[in-house]
């Protein structure tokens, strides 16, 4: 059974005023085999905390704490992820294709745990695929 690591842009989709229906369907169908990295949690929480106080901030905080946190298992950047990350960054830097730190760490978790990374931004992770067997899916694209 395929298992997934959900990127922040996938997790935040249901909180949008007009969310992508395909993404909503796939989130529902695959919830039990989907994971969230603590790095994506950081990205989402940080984005909320820098918003001005108000209803939007309250709504997004409630979404994160009531919909994401209780219903997903979280994966941290651990020892195995660090080993993959070190090898990844060394190869990408040598090839002149360094990636943003958090994206690389999320990809490292997916690789270390043998998960498919689900993201809208597949092009951001494509350079990693040149050197590593990172599986990517974009749930915004109908298949």
Structural account:
Helix content is 53%, strand content 10%. The protein has seven helices and five strands. Helix 3 packs antiparallel against helix 4 (55-68) and helix 5 (79-94) packs across helix 6 (101-112). The two termini are 19 Å apart.
Task: Give the helices and strands, then pairings.
Blueprint: E1 4-6, H1 8-11, H2 21-30, E2 34-37, H3 38-49, H4 55-68, E3 73-75, H5 79-94, H6 101-112, E4 116-118, H7 122-129, E5 136-137
Parallel strand pairs: 1-2, 1-4, 2-3, 4-5
The fraction of residues assigned to DSSP E strands is 5-15%
What order do the SSEs take from the amino end to the carboxyl end, as H and E? EHHEHHEHHEHE
Q: Which of globular, elongated, flat, extended, rod-shaped describes the shape?
A: globular
Structural class: alpha/beta
Number of strands: 5
Portion of residues within helices? 40-55%
**Sheet with most strands: strand arrangement:** 3-2-1-4-5
Mean pLDDT: 95
Q: How many helices in DSSP terms?
A: 7
Poorly predicted runs are none
Tell me the Rg in angstroms: 15 Å
How far apart the termini lie comes to 19 Å
Major sheet description = 5 strands, parallel
Summarize the structure.
The chain has 143 residues and is an alpha/beta fold. The chain contains seven helices and five strands, in the order βααβααβααβαβ. The protein has a five-stranded parallel β-sheet with strand order 3-2-1-4-5.
């Amino acid at each position: 059974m395929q298992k997934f690591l959900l990127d922040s842009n996938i997790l935040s989709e249901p909180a949008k005023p007009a969310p992508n229906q395909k993404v909503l369907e796939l989130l529902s169908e695959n919830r039990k085999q989907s994971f969230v990295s603590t790095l994506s949690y950081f990205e989402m929480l940080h984005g909320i905390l820098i918003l001005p106080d108000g209803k939007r901030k309250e709504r997004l905080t409630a979404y994160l704490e009531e919909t994401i946190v209780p219903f997903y298992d979280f994966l941290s950047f651990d020892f195995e992820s660090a080993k993959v990350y070190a090898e990844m960054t060394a190869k990408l830097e040598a090839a002149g294709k360094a990636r943003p730190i958090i994206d690389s760490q999320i990809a490292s978790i997916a690789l270390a745990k043998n998960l498919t990374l689900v993201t809208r931004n597949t092009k951001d992770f494509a350079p990693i695929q040149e050197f590593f067997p990172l599986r990517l899916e974009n749930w915004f694209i109908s298949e």
